[in-house]
Amino acid sequence: MNNIKSPLFLNGKNAELIETFDSETIISKYKALNIEVARFFKTPNISLYKCQKTGYRFYYPFEIVGDARFYEDLSKNKSNYYSERWEHKRALNYIEKHDLVLEIGSGFGAFLNMLKASNIQSVGLELNPYAAEVCAKNGLTVKNELIENEAKTNKGVYNVVCSFQVLEHITNVHSFIKASIDALKINGKLIIGVPNNNPYLFVNDKYHTLNLPPHHAGLWDKKALKALETVFSIQLERMEFEPLNVNYSYFIHFQITNNKSKTLRFLLRAFNKMSPGLLKFILCKFIKGRNVLAVFKKI
User: Fold this and answer.
1) How far apart are CA 79 and CA 81, in angstroms?
2) Its domain of life (predicted)?
């Protein structure tokens, strides 16, 4: 009998099992990226569960998340891993010049450098010692600290607490989000950027390598982010989705070759050959992209 509880809504019903994954397949996928992950997998399969209250999906067992060595290997094998992102630029629209900003998971300082260029005071938290060292050399204020510890010593200090492509790596999501809110002033902004796990990214691409453990611990979408209002004292003010055209080439190639529907694969292939510009316009008009930015207010 399933007695797995949601790590987001701690007092809710048992989570629902929705999918299983073969560990050896995942290990081989990462090996193709020159990253060794066999040490994380102690069972032949891993599971994906869904929180029945929020819709948040999470992998189990929780111990299969990446460590400092994993992220150092990843950053060295993917040169653009900590680069500037769409959500960085969008988040700047919600930050005022006088704000004190805390960024959780600063990487090599892409967003902190953007804040610095705008004369906005900021502090970063980064657990990857390799990335934190680079930030320090570039004159950025970065602490090797968990958000839970930062919130205890600097409770209610920040105007903005933000994280980009971080929350999907966290297993103890309730503690992480609660601490992020605790570090905020009343009416302060909590800004979260995560992959948008809508159907096109996940349903037709079950073994999308970097969407699996040990890289990702959970899957977020519009419903799960909106549901945070029911768990914490925050109010959703804005939600933005990255335009599909940013990653359209990946999207259309994958759909044409891997969509579960043979009929849809045929129609997309034909339409893409006859009128690729029109197909792109239509799809980008109605399908959201692969990342989502949510802006909450502490109440």
Assistant:
1) 6
2) Bacteria
